[in-house]
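In the current project phase, we have settled on a layout for protein records. One protein thus recorded is set out beneath this paragraph:
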Amino acid sequence: MTKDRISRTTLVHGGARRSQYGEVAEAVYLTQGFVYDNAESAEARFIEAQTDEFIYARYGNPTVRMFEDRIAQLEGAEDAFATASGMAAVNGALVSLCKAGDHVVAARALFGSCLYVLENVLGRFGVEITLVDGTDLDQWRAAIRPDTRAVFFEAMSNPTLEVVDIAAVAEIAHAHDAVVVVDNVFATPIYSRALEQGADVVVYSATKHIDGQGRVLGGVVLGSRDYIRGTLEPYLKHTGAALSPFSAWVLLNGLGTMDLRVRAQVANAEALAEALHDHPKLARVIYPGHADHPQHALVQRQTGKGGTLIAIDLTGGQAAAFRFLNALKVGIISNNLGDARTILTHPATTTHQRLPEDQKVALGITPGLVRISLGIEGTQDILDDILSALDAA
């Protein structure tokens, strides 16, 4: 059965556990610990907890486990571990793999906090980091060495929407036994085929499309059972990145509608990209799903759709971008993405503000660049709002 055919059913029913009361909605187990029938059962559980046996909320929780099982089934992964935020997931995935003396190759176009984990956390503890142009396979080939422990990249970069060829990079990395870690947020779990294309580990900020309604933070790491339980879990449970049961419950409910929301968001992104094509006030319209994107063919092969975000570059620079943003009536200004609401962000002054100027230039983060995360509002309402705001710019 293909992923598309099982996704909605899995998103509604996958991993469900009902108590003796037979509740319809998933139960929220707001508890930090668990009671044992006797001392012997406590001892046995600490030796090896069985399925649906729990010790402490930092190690696992029934509500959290339902979320992990459901997203793992959707992604086609053997297992998953949920975390308190997307960055806790990135940190856990990378730090649990590496030790002093290891080498990591990563795409240069990364979210600032991801660069911090690589350069200021791993780098501080003796891991050598090499950054490359993620779209240039020759740079990957030149950078990966026999001692490379892992490669890391965003499958679709933030905010300029460059696309990394997962299958090709995985082939290069696996030739040196390096672990392929992919931040797949922009591709979304609905269109993700990262594991079948060669990724070993897939990371999501569940704050984005999984919740998709601006309510909670969360993250999740997916991969083989050996990696999740043997490498990742010991690191995360001892360092305290646990997802709260309430947040897991919110995310479970987010999964139930994610397919419908994401497909509506993608349809709105496609319509907006087409409407803005060749607009006189825009130097660039960047949308991987549009035929003029330089990696359009790769996108079609890798995900089949261009995602829920587009980026536009106003010819008037920051002043024009601010006039545009301030004229919006439907879209809102914030720094989140993947939400049911259309959200617009000016990366140069917010999410990527602290990047050195030369890095902004290298990544294409210009003063006029605006990232648009499409919501599920009426398509014409969004188009009218964006076009009217451009008139004001």
